[in-house]
Amino acid sequence: MLAVRKAEPQRGVEVVEIDPPTPGPDEILVRVKKAGICGSDRHLYEWDAWAELNFPTPVTLGHEIVGEVVSFGPSVANVSEGDLVAVESHVFDGTCRACRTGNAHVCENLRILGIDMNGGFASFVTVPSRLAWKVPDGIPLSRAALFEPLGNAVHATMRYDVSGQPLAVYGCGPMGLMAIAVARSIGANPIVASDISEYRRNLALAMGAHATVDASSESCDEELITALGSRPTRTLEMSGHPRAVQQALRLSANGGKVVLLGIPPTPVEISVADHVLFRGMDIYGVTGRLIWDTWYRTETFLLQHGETLDPMLTHTFSLNAFEDAMSTIMSGECGKILLDIEGAT
């Protein structure tokens, strides 16, 4: 089967033929139909400082997947052959303190699909059956491929009550765009998004932002506050750019709530006293989704508001064209990129 492999600790990947996996006793074998390229896949591809410290090799990439169950081990009872499933990418042990207190997404022995174990940028992938989420009728395949990343946006946006709150969204990549759609659906007002890319700022407007500002402008701070009518009481930092992280904390209203989801490539310096302690700030870091609370919320959003995500689904590539997909991502002239994997040989 074809697979996108990170074989060596250096820039780039390979699209190669490997043997298909065999499911273990508690695993399912999934024929992958579609997959999404995540920001962490870009980190892996570029092999930046953060990737070098956090990612083992070799590994098959890919953790945002939807596909069909084709077989499973003898201990599996929660799915049937032919089921269409999305997959939770955080492989939790279920026994540590974090898991047993409702925080399986930050399991103390966490492994992540496509990073710590072979992932789904391949014709087939095996995963523990407990990670499967059956996709209900009424959700098209391209939207079903968004379950995992949309869950991140749902988790981030719903961490604090955003209804009626002035919301700043830093970064109009796929995560920021999905967060805008979620925030609009639950009444954040106004929503102002910032990004350096005019293309992505226009996508943000299509997704429901009330206004956008150019993050590269020298007057970005003033423009953002003017567009919001005040300092933001709720902030979503979705880009991971060090300056955006600093700006998110600096511009927030006193007593504001700041959610950080974007992954900075290097450590970020902040003034804990000036920007956090003396202003009564709440800061929350997002990695993954609340298992399984966020999945129920995400499914509901897809069923009731799924069409609002369509403007961001700008490109689809075959598995063989993975390099073209990465080039498009790096151009900044795209929304969410999907891989059409079904039938890849």
The helix/strand series, from N terminus to C terminus, equals EEEHHEEEEHEEEHHEHEHEHEHEHEHEHE
Helix content: 25-40%
Question: From the coordinates shown, what is the CATH architecture of the largest domain?
Answer: Alpha-Beta Complex
Radius of gyration: 20 Å
How would you sum up the major sheet? Answer: 7 strands, mixed
Distance between the termini: 6 Å
CATH class of the largest domain: Alpha Beta
CATH superfamily of the largest domain: Medium-chain alcohol dehydrogenases, catalytic domain
User: Structural class per helix/strand content?
Assistant: alpha/beta
* Domain count: 2
- The tally of beta strands, per DSSP, is 18
- In CATH, the topology of the largest domain is named Quinone Oxidoreductase, Chain A, domain 1
Detailed description of the structure:
By secondary structure, the protein is α/β, with parallel strands linked by helices. It folds into 2 domains: 2-150 and 289-340, Medium-chain alcohol dehydrogenases, catalytic domain (Quinone Oxidoreductase, Chain A, domain 1), CATH 3.90.180; 160-285, Rossmann fold, CATH 3.40.50.720. It is built from 12 helices and 18 strands. Strands 3, 5, 6, 9, 10, 17 and 18 form a 7-stranded mixed sheet that branches. A 6-stranded parallel sheet has the order 13-12-11-14-15-16, sandwiched between helices. Helix 7 (198-207) links the parallel strand 12 and strand 13 (211-214). Helix 5 (147-157) crosses helix 6 and helix 5 (147-157) packs across helix 11 (293-305). The protein starts with a strand and ends in a 5-residue tail after the last strand. The model has no long low-confidence stretch (mean pLDDT 96).
